[in-house]
Amino acid sequence: MKKLLRFLVLFLLVGILLMLGMGLALGLYYRNHFPVNTWINGVYCTGKTLEQVNRELSQKTDVPAAVIVGMDGRDGQLDLRRAEGRADYTAVLVRYLYKNAFLLWAENLREPVREELEADSYVYDRDKLREDFEELDIISEARKTDPGVRLIRSVRGYELQDGNTAHLDVEQAFAYLEECLSRGECHVDLADGNCYTALEDSEYDEHVRMIWERLQEYTDRSIVYDMGTEDIPLSADILCDFLDVGKDALPVPAAGGGLVLNEGKIRAWLEGLAQTYNTVGTELEFHATRGDVVKVKYETYGTELDVETETAYLTKVLSGSGGTEEDRHVPAYLHQGYVRGLDDIGGTYIEVDMTEQHMYYYVDGELALDTDVVTGCTGLRRGTPQGVNFVYAKQRNRILRGPDYASPVKYWMPVRGHVGIHDADWRSRFGGKIYKTDGSHGCINTPPKKMAELYEMVEIGTPVITFY
Q1: What's the rounded Cα separation, in Å, for the pair 413 and 248?
Q2: What torsion, rounded to 10 degrees, do the Cα atoms 264, 268, 270, 276 define?
């Protein structure tokens, strides 16, 4: 009996030792192999080594671009795939195995274990990464930026190129990029990595900064030229074109503060504006109601900017020596049309087609009235003059007089000298070819009822286009 008892105890001890040995062996095995029923990020890991799982996870993981942000807010992107970049899960997998496999692998026998892990670093070909890093605009430009402070003329007026306050240490910048990637970070703010150093300003650098401060104040304006249907903001680029520039290509500082203006440059800009908007003395390409395009010269009607007055206005306002700055400025005109803008005829006008002997009145582009008329007698060389004119007055019950006539009319709207639009109750017919042999002395004879309607609708200043 005692022998049997000793045998059972010995058998039990041997069994326990075998089980402990097997457990220890499995534990040691699972220090570098993943236990049964293990899934990580959708990858089946059972029995695989850490290196195998890391490789599969890396192949499955999209590598984001590394964003490098400079102190001025500009950024550049590095495609890590060009540098053979890949996510590295080694460290996080080691921690996972230590915690979940070495001692607790048996827990996986109950049910499958599914984990979601994130890579905590990126690996890459260092030489290729450095090559791409050097080609980034913010890095290549930093290499070209010498110490010192400069003003660069640009489409935004002037820009300050500061090689002193923020001098980029390219070597430190690349080292900081690698440091971030080793932590699994792809957003690299160089200002956080002590990548910039400050250099002492020279006397000339201080001079440039003074001009820059004055430029900021000078261009901090919101003047908009109100041209009617168009607005022309005086952008920083336009304002900087008005400045005197010294031999060093920098704006010239004024003795009492501010910057020196060049009146000739202001005048030149306004002359360019006038060339765009002036119509006085030019020809209008007019789309006639009959369907074709006719060329008609601007006569008494048209737009002409007052360049002298505007030059004085801008010079005073921008120099701060007088005048009132306005957010919206309506320029002064020598001649101003009924409508202001590139199209100074607009949609409201009177059209007199003397070939068709027909008159049209449009309001905002819509036909409001039309009628047959009789214009000046071409047979007696009294034809109504062609041109772009305007209604410059309105009168009731007048007697129109000439060398051989005195004609009372109820409605009179002169458009050019003694030529106007009026009723003609002495006529029973209008239109056709009457004007060739029995036309007027130059005026536009209109049926009385139509003339009464037209007179009530038309405003003084309305353009009148007459043509054959």
Answers
A1: 62
A2: 170
DSSP 82-142: GGT-EEE-HHHHHHHHHHHTTTTGGGGGTS-EEE-----EEE--HHHHHHHHHHSHHHHHH
Neighbours of 125 (CB within 10 A): 13
Structurally, at CATH architecture level, domain 349-467 sits in Beta Barrel (2.40)
Domain spans of the chain? 349-467
Per residue in 329-371, pLDDT (tens digit) is 999 999 999 999 999 999 999 999 999 999 999 999 999 999 9
- Give the containing element (helix H, strand E) for 50: helix 50-60
Residue found under tokens 């034809």: 383
Q: What is the pLDDT of residue 35?
A: 80
Buried b / exposed e along 167-203 (16+ C-beta atoms within 10 A):
bbbeeebbebbeebbeebebebbbeebebbeeeebee
Helix (H) or strand (E) holding 174: helix 170-182
**Cα–Cα distance between 286 and 353 in angstroms, integer?**
11
Cβ atoms of residues 366 and 289 within 8 Å: no
The whole-angstrom separation of Cα 412 and Cα 455 is 8
pTM above 0.85?
no
What backbone phi and psi angles, to 5 degrees, belong to 177? -60, -45
Q: Which of 335, 333, 363 shows the shortest CA–CA distance to 349?
A: 363
User: Which DSSP helix (H) or strand (E) runs through 455?
Assistant: helix 448-457
